[in-house]
Amino acid sequence: MSYKIMAINAGSSSLKFQLLEMPQGDMLCQGLIERIGMADAQVTIKTHSQKMAGNRPRCRSSRCGNAASGKAAGLSNH
């Protein structure tokens, strides 16, 4: 039986994560958010086949609730 585990490391202004397929321990995706709360925050998400990165300006609007999609987060493929 396979299952997934998300490992999260949160600091004062950054957050790192990995999503792992268990029990093999295969990495499905990983990400990093740096400078949380600052105007020049950086978001990077990687999978085996894709890397997305971009700036995420501070949002002062109720529209920021939909940050789950790459477009909402201002990410671009690399």
Structural key phrases:
single chain, mainly beta, Nucleotidyltransferase, domain 5, ATPase_NBD, Aliphatic_acid_kin_short-chain, acetate kinase activity, nucleotide-binding
Overall residue-averaged pLDDT value? 83
Q: Do you know the CATH architecture?
A: 2-Layer Sandwich
How far the N terminus sits from the C terminus, by CA atoms, comes to 34 Å
Count of all domains: 1
Write down how many β-strands occur, each being a DSSP E stretch of 2 or more residues: 6
Number of helices: 0
CATH class: Alpha Beta
What share of residues is helical?
A: under 10%
CATH homologous superfamily annotation: ATPase, nucleotide binding domain
Provide the low-confidence segments as ranges: 67-72
Shape: globular
Structural class: mainly beta
Give the SSE string.
EEEEEE
The rounded Rg comes to: 14 Å
Task: Give the spatial strand order of the biggest sheet.
Answer: 1-2-3-4-5-6
Biggest sheet details: 6 strands, antiparallel
Beta percentage is over 45%
CATH topology term: Nucleotidyltransferase, domain 5
EC number: 2.7.2.1
Pfam families: Acetate_kinase (PF00871)
Enzyme class: transferase
Protein name: Propionate kinase
Molecular structure report:
The protein is an all-beta fold and 78 residues long. It has no helices and six strands. The protein has one domain (3-70): 2-Layer Sandwich (Nucleotidyltransferase, domain 5). Helix content is 0%, strand content 50%.
